[in-house]
Amino acid sequence: MFGIPESLVLLMGQVFVGLIGLSFILTLLGVGLILINAYRDRFFLPRATLVLFTSFRYPIKAILRMVGMPGTTIDRLSLDIRNTIQRPFFSTVPPEKRMAFFPQCLRDLKCPARTSPEYGIMCSKCGKCVIGSFKKKGEDLGYMGVYIVPGSSFIKRIVKRDGPSAVLGIACTADATAGMEMLEAYGLPAHSVYLLKEGCVNTVVDADRVLEIMELGCETEDVPPSGVAA
Predict the structure, then answer these.
(1) What pTM, to 2 d.p., does this model score?
(2) Counting Cβ atoms within 10 Å, is residue 12 exposed (0-12), middle (13-18) or buried (19+)?
(3) Where are the domains of the chain?
(4) What confidence tens digit (pLDDT) does each residue in 121-136 have?
């Protein structure tokens, strides 16, 4: 009808079917790798798993949900794999070139801190929540910045303005994934710790895990231990 040779139409159809078949195979391979790594302490082919999951995120998650794996478990596993890949690069960056970002939802409902358009929420270390302990740890280690942020746009602005060489982010699984992908696009090593309880207020994070990651690659002999508020 349009003057296209029948052989070319046939070839295009074969290529299209082939691409669909290849996508299906890669999706199943991604599902298999996720299932394998869900039951391993040491991840198997983490880079390949992450590439496949990132490329076929939605069909992989749909299939995994069908076999009974919750969406939150899938997202947390993908973050664990991403952290495993990034950890060696993050740990080699000295603390004075690192930044740490914490979500405002970790604050106590009666938090007295004021908000600065330049520095975010100005923690006073009042002891009502765990953030004060994290901020003190960052200061003791010599981090170039420890911020409590009202949103992701603030992180973008600070990172572009001050130019850290590595970033630690604490967030819900969705924000942690988006943040790490954004920072990787900037070429920055990033590590995340996801919230154990998510929401807009009264969220919960594994405080010991946060402190452990903050100390990665740091000399801690002269750094006093950080007490964590209950």
Answers:
(1) 0.86
(2) exposed
(3) 6-69, 94-214
(4) 999 889 899 999 999 9
